[in-house]
Write a structure and sequence with these properties.
This protein is mainly alpha-helical. 61% of the residues lie in helices and 6% in strands. Zinc ion (ZN) binds next to helix 4.
Amino acid sequence: MTDVFGDLVGQDEAVAVLRRAAASAAALLRAPVTAPAGGRDDLDALAEEHDDDPAPAPADPGAGMTHAWIFTGPPGSGRSVAARAFAAALECVHGTGCGSCPGCHTTLTGTHADVRLVVPEGLSIGVNEMRALVLRAASAPSGGRWQIVIIEDADRLTEAAGNALLKAIEEPPPRTVFLLCAPSTHPDDISVTIRSRCRVVPLRQPPPAAVAEVLVRRDGIAPDVAEWAAAAAQGHVGRARRLARDPEARQRRDAVLAVPRRLTGVGAAFDAASALIEAAEAEAAASVAEIDEAERTALQTALGAGGTGRGAAGAMRGAAGQLKDLEKRQKSRATRAQRDALDRALVDLAGFYRDAIVMALRAPVAPVHTDTASLAGAGAQKWDAEGSLRRLEAVLECRAAIEANVKPRIAVEAMMLTLWRG
Ligand SMILES: [Zn+2]
């Protein structure tokens, strides 16, 4: 039986930091601090205790507990897994994150009354949502331990939402903990003022061997499949799991990796761009269709569609507004899903050209895509390291352009032309 940190693949340093913090948080709850009057809260008192205590190195950033944390790392490194595991350890009745007590269990399954998880569905988290959240997080924890707010993709906060959050982080209620997840602490991802109030837990891209190990141990996937999927997913645990299990995900990847072979002229380059965009749209549509339909049905039921009693006409007018809101949210979510699908395809493609560079340089490094290694080898001969690098850069530029809101079709067409011409 592993504890709550068992799924954090290849993140030994971060796990050590979080274990120490959970232990000091538990100590804090066990031994009520006799704080002098004057508005000091539990955590300040704890921090001071640490300052007085010469035993642990005072410069150790991992010691002790604090109100606000940022988990950073590349996609798939497990930012939200880490945040949830830490939340479970804080709510654990043993204070360790044992993985089997009610506190751990309800936190991990998303039903703990004091743990709130914000997962942005659209492109950003709005100010109203954030204000409501901050307000609720200020109440005393019903379970007697901690009020925890986990914000996935904190880089998608609007500026106003970020300011609402900052206010809460600056004057935190004594038992409230904020756990933010973001790709990095770059000012584009998280404001400097929020960053300055948080402790940062950097996660690294887990090595393929560690990813393969967890696929075998936890998901019961055959070792050879796990190894292939872990390498092909380039350290993204969720992606590796999908590739190992989902034939459709494998087919989509095959189609993407067939692109370099198909680029035989200008027309073929535009065809390949269309195919890539349309595949991303189809994948995104399939991924949101079920939940869209469920939301529409739920809303219609809640609004009592088809009612004829008194007030039904007024209710219908309000209903139209609510349906419009829902459609707006769903459209925003669909856009996000399309971008995510396209980004996965670009990451696969980048892996291919990276393999070509490795082979052109005869570097003693394992290929990302073992199943297209011979194709990458042929590319390496034709383009040499320099031409392969230009193509890899074209893929990375396309990602950056889409992130900067260039229309995906335009960015992908430009990329395909460079991939063909070099
Ligand atoms: Zn527990």
